[in-house]
Amino acid sequence: MEKRWVATVHLDTLEVEYDPSFKFRCVENCGLCCNNLEIPLRDEDIERIEELGYNTWEFVDYEKAFYRGNRFLGYALKKNPLNDSCIFFDPETRKCKIYDHRPLACRLYPFIFIRDENLMEIYIKGDRFCPGIGHPEGEPLTRKFLMGEYGDLLIVHRREIVNSRR
Ligand code: SF4
């Protein structure tokens, strides 16, 4: 998979190094990722969506599974058989019906987070369809941007590091 480094978070200090030439801004109601991606579901994603009252048969595609090497990552989020978009994508509003409870893979898109001990390396996917990548009014992945979008995730990783040193 084509990918490019855009930032590194030092998890012990939450200091950030970033590529100032890269900018991103999600285009409101674009929805292209909801129509183009295959999303793996973690157990936590499934549980969170079930808590909204959905049954797994409504949103889990058990015929499609994701692996990294031999490691099972999860089954796929179902697609709408009528238009091949995500099952939770509303084509009229072009919004996600479960936005606040969406799977982690949707939340991270178009970024890839790879942790290496106390560093969180962040890469951008080489997807050509996302108009947010390189958006002229976008912003680089500064500490302010990352803490605003992903602060909760980064703090969980930071706690793991602090606890492992005790
Ligand atoms: S394709 Fe890119 S710009 Fe469009 S909604 Fe998804 S992340 Fe935002």
Explain what you see.
- This protein has helices at residues 32-36, 43-50, 56-59, 104-108, 143-164, and strands spanning 3-10, 15-18, 40-41, 60-68, 71-77, 89-90, 95-96, 111-116, 119-125.
- The protein has 2 domains: 1-24 and 110-166, no CATH class; 29-98, no CATH class.
- The protein has 166 residues and is of the alpha+beta class.
- It starts with a strand and ends with a helix.
- It has 5 helices and 9 strands, in the order E-E-H-E-H-H-E-E-E-E-H-E-E-H.
- Strand 8 and strand 9 (119-125) form a beta hairpin.
- The chain has a 4-stranded antiparallel β-sheet, with no helix packed on it.
- Iron/sulfur cluster (SF4) binds next to helix 1.
Provide the domain count.
2
Rg over CA atoms: 17 Å
Question: Which cofactors or ions or other ligands sit in this model?
Answer: iron/sulfur cluster
**Count of individual helical segments:** 5
Strand ordering within the main sheet: 2-1-9-8
Helix percentage range: 25-40%
Are there runs of 5+ residues with pLDDT below 50, and where? none
Order of helices and strands: EEHEHHEEEEHEEH
Task: Tell me about the largest β-sheet.
Answer: 4 strands, antiparallel
What characteristic shape results from the CA principal axes?
globular
Could you tell me the number of beta strands? 9
Strand percentage lies at 25-35%
| Mean model confidence by pLDDT | 94
Distance between the termini: 37 Å
* Sheet/helix structural class: alpha+beta
